[in-house]
Write a structure and sequence with these properties.
4-stranded antiparallel β-sheet, Rossmann fold, 4-stranded parallel β-sheet, 16 helices, alpha/beta, binds zinc ion
């Protein structure tokens, strides 16, 4: 069975055939580091994280390259606003990016090159394009790519030149010959960073860096190029023109694009005030809840972010972890009896068949253009049967314990490819409880102190005060449960609003 993926270049699903048997080179466009990462960056990073994890799970040797754009108009503008060198800004936001992605459980790419480390390569590529008649320098030191001279421009985005021409204008002050031409090199203005070049002091245009860095690490032709669908035009179209224009060889074989993210049905933008940072989301949601939210949809589909959608993702993750907790309570890690395939009772046999089947069905779903939604559905089928098996009571037969141990193993294995179910269930629920309390404006030590006070009141037979404390907490959604071993608290009901 082949892995099939949707190729933006051919507009259809194709069998994935790597250039080199057993190896995959993948390049994804990274972040322009001038601000804190938002939920859109999280989506793209999680999607490509799962794609690379799955390729590895399937046995490929993967080389995953993701760049940082660390010199650009926005970075320079911010540096000037703050009165610091542009590198101060890029260093700051690269560090923040790495921390945010680490917390989301995104595995670091194999290589994370920065544009400013590849300036000589960019100058070399521009020089080659000039030599091929595909680029020209203008007085003042700018260099442009000549779109008309590259046959095949528009093949990725499906646009034709006439369409693109109507609407294209030359901005005042630009010396390009044709409105469609784009900058490869820009002469640096006063106060801007610059590098020496054959065309004078300047800095690269945006598109050239990805052509240079992808080729540097993966070769002139490589397997997969990815990014958000907003990059198809003009960025990826221009990358193809630059790379194929220089080498005369096909650039990336498969183009994968993740869909947009919206916030409450609206485009996310700073001006609309609905700009949601990863850091803010992680204050109130477990990273695996965010991953579930992203992966419950197909990577190519649009994704609508809302607090409600995240709460639903939390309930779903809790259900998965509840099953793991039930198993863990009955079968502490590594203690499942080795019953083997000996005749099992019917329920156990059914679950074992489902469990044994999960990796295969998971693979079928993921082989179908990384259908994570369907893959998650199969995990839930196993969870339903786990629940049915453990409703019997706190003690289970050795065959049941054996099958439950197997269920945990495959849930962890397949979940791990998606970057979920990586925690101990008790740790997960403790974190969940703390986050839920904080969402209600409750501090953990405050709750613990009130529980202590209630205990003293009960000892002193001050039932009125004890009830007052319990009711006060219940009004905020904190429910107390008394048992022989003490009082535990949980947070019920989702937050309203
Ligand atoms: Zn790029």
């Amino acid at each position: 069975m082949a892995l099939r993926l949707y190729n933006t270049l051919t507009r259809r699903k194709e069998d994935f055939v790597p250039i080199k048997d057993g190896e995959v080179g993948i390049y994804a466009c990274g972040v322009t580091v001038y601000d804190t990462c938002h939920i859109g960056h999280a989506r793209s990073a999680i999607n490509f994280d799962v794609i690379t994890r799955y390729l590895r799970y399937r046995g490929y040797r993967v080389n995953y390259v993701k760049n940082f754009t660390d010199v650009d108009d926005k970075i320079i503008a911010r540096a000037n606003r703050e009165g610091v060198e542009f590198r101060k800004i890029s260093e700051r936001y690269i560090a923040e990016h790495d921390r945010d992605m680490g917390q989301l459980g995104v595995e670091p790419p194999d290589v994370t090159p920065r544009a400013t480390e590849h300036i000589p390569g960019m100058i070399g590529l521009i020089d080659r394009l000039i030599g091929n008649g595909l680029a020209y320098a203008v007085p003042g030191g700018d260099v442009y790519f000549s779109v008309k001279n590259f046959r095949g421009y528009g093949k990725l985005s499906g646009r034709n030149l006439d369409e693109m021409m109507s609407g294209a204008r030359i901005a005042p002050g630009e010396k390009k010959k044709d409105p469609l031409d784009f900058a490869l090199w820009k002469a640096s203005k006063e106060g801007e960073p610059w590098w020496d070049s054959p065309w004078g002091k300047g800095r690269p245009g945006w598109h050239i860096e990805c052509s240079v860095m992808s080729t540097h690490f993966l070769g002139e032709t490589f397997d997969i190029h990815g990014g958000g669908e907003d990059l198809i035009f003009p960025h990826h179209e221009n990358e193809i023109a630059q790379s194929e224009g220089a080498s005369g060889k096909p650039f990336a074989k498969y183009w994968l694009h993740n869909g947009f993210i919206k916030v409450n049905h609206e485009k996310m933008s700073k001006s609309l005030g609905n700009f949601i940072t990863i850091r803010d989301i992680l204050k109130i949601h477990h990273p695996e809840v965010v991953r579930f939210f992203v992966l419950q949809g197909h990577y190519r589909s649009p994704l609508d972010f809302s607090e409600e959608a995240l709460n639903e993702a939390r309930f779903a993750m809790n259900r998965l972890y509840e099953a793991l907790k039930k198993i863990r309570d009955l079968v502490p890690a590594g203690t499942a009896p080795a019953v083997g395939e000996a005749p099992l009772p019917e329920k156990e046999r059914e679950l074992l068949a489902r469990v044994r089947d999960l990796p295969e069905r998971f693979r079928e779903a993921m082989d179908d253009d990384f259908n994570t939604a369907r893959a998650l559905g199969y995990l839930f089928e196993v969870v339903r049967q786990v629940n049915a098996l453990v409703t019997g009571g706190p003690e289970a037969s050795p065959p049941a314990l054996f099958v439950l141990g197997e269920a945990e193993r495959v849930l962890r294995e397949t979940g791990g490819v998606l970057g979920i179910l990586t925690e101990d269930p008790n740790v997960y629920f403790e974190k969940d409880r703390i986050r839920e309390a904080q969402k209600r404006g409750l501090q953990i030590d405050e709750i613990e102190a009130l529980i202590g006070e209630r205990l003293r009141a009960r000892k002193e037979k001050d039932w009125k005060r004890a009830d007052e404390i319990r009711d006060g907490l219940a009004a905020k959604g904190v429910v107390l449960k008394d048992s022989r071993t003490g009082t535990v608290w949980t947070v019920e009901k989702p937050v309203q609003g």
